[in-house]
Fold this sequence. Notes:
Layout: E1 2-4, E2 7-9, H1 11-26, H2 32-38, H3 43-55, E3 61-64, E4 72-73, E5 86-88, E6 91-99, E7 104-110, E8 115-121, H4 127-141, E9 151-156, H5 159-164, E10 174-179, H6 194-213, E11 216-217, E12 226-228, E13 238-240, E14 247-248, H7 268-271, H8 280-296, H9 307-316, H10 332-339, H11 351-361, H12 411-427, H13 443-457, H14 477-484, H15 492-505, H16 511-519
Antiparallel strand pairs: 1-2, 1-3, 3-4, 5-6, 6-7, 7-8, 8-10, 9-10, 11-14, 12-13
Helix pairs in contact: 1-3, 6-8, 6-11, 6-13, 8-10, 12-13, 15-16
Amino acid sequence: xxxxxxxxxxxxxxxxxxxxxxxxxxxxxxxxxxxxxxxxxxxxxxxxxxxxxxxxxxxxxxxxxxxxxxxxxxxxxxxxxxxxxxxxxxxxxxxxxxxxxxxxxxxxxxxxxxxxxxxxxxxxxxxxxxxxxxxxxxxxxxxxxxxxxxxxxxxxxxxxxxxxxxxxxxxxxxxxxxxxxxxxxxxxxxxxxxxxxxxxxxxxxxxxxxxxxxxxxxxxxxxxxxxxxxxxxxxxxxxxxxxxxxxxxxxxxxxxxxxxxxxxxxxxxxxxxxxxxxxxxxxxxxxxxxxxxxxxxxxxxxxxxxxxxxxxxxxxxxxxxxxxxxxxxxxxxxxxxxxxxxxxxxxxxxxxxxxxxxxxxxxxxxxxxxxxxxxxxxxxxxxxxxxxxxxxxxxxxxxxxxxxxxxxxxxxxxxxxxxxxxxxxxxxxxxxxxxxxxxxxxxxxxxxxxxxxxxxxxxxxxxxxxxxxxxxxxxxxxxxxxxxxxxxxxxxxxxxxxxxxxxxxxxxxxxxxxxxxxxxx
Length: 521
């Protein structure tokens, strides 16, 4: 605390008063309330600051105590404050926040809306860091969901920005702008009631279902990578973040597989470097470790031991007794165990399935019982009448070509496709739907929309087959299976064994069915 004008005030408030004083004296237009939020000064205190400053613009300020002992501030003269005015596109950067693994992270504001943002910079030429940075930008551009961090723009720093940053940033540095999450990361959040913990996990699972539906595995789930937007009412509003290790599902973008992630949260298949077994259930294991830590205060296995021993625990050691710090529903421990099975095939098969089971925990009367039911397909898709977020004015040009364009004016075709899927799911018999139209009319986009919706709800999975007139190397069922199960470059015997194991992971246990599919490759 520092004394100013006879009052004990936090240092952040003192600095804000000085900045407001300077702005009013010089006639500068400044979004003071945005600055106040960045310094965690509430609106009532900000209003009082403005009132005091407008009352007497010419009164000098003398500090007593703290690091500013004896300093005399004269209005109209600059004061050395840790704030900058670094312009990148429609954003104004205010101050550095931290030094990330790939470069500095700054806090700023969108000038038109006064919305707080975060700008991450890449300050290295190391190939692994460059790959992670670019992978994260590509991954974030695929997502459009309330519980996934939103990216607003990207670009490269210019010479003017370098000059106004006081030399802390360099021209040419790539940057990406995302939402600013005032609540920090999940490790900062506490819970006192069962429903608080449950609701936090439901938000994470909802965001994870969307990520998986867009063909992406996160691969680095941990509390530090779940951020809280912190609503005005003080409610938790979580966002999945940090997709630097993200990789593709089903033969998509391979990502940096040689980088494993955080050892305490790694699934057994990653510890064994069996990347061919990566699937949605791999992220669910990491979520299980995180949920265990949230409930008990520590991870399932000792992270202070040598990494090789920790990997061995993930792969072979039984879970320790579950001892939560606070009273939880009796079925929660069993739900956790479903997430933390050693084999992917024994876990929940999708985030949607895990979410449904967690919702059912409250309705479970018998301790230890877990709902293993599959999600039921609804009459309408999840995105029906869902409004798209309004982009920030002047932002997003750097994302052109990375973001997926929304479907417009295709509601009848969407309804017909969804109804066909609904009939297939409820009737138990396959159906064929033929989309006709010329090149560029959006047939493929409609199919991907259907696949994403089905995956998000946990009621379907996309298997893409190419049928070319020339019958190229990717033509037909065999190459489709090879892409789906990552069999490229393997000898026939090894490919057959790996596919058979993958089919078991998917729950296809009948040996004749598996043998028939293996023969197709």
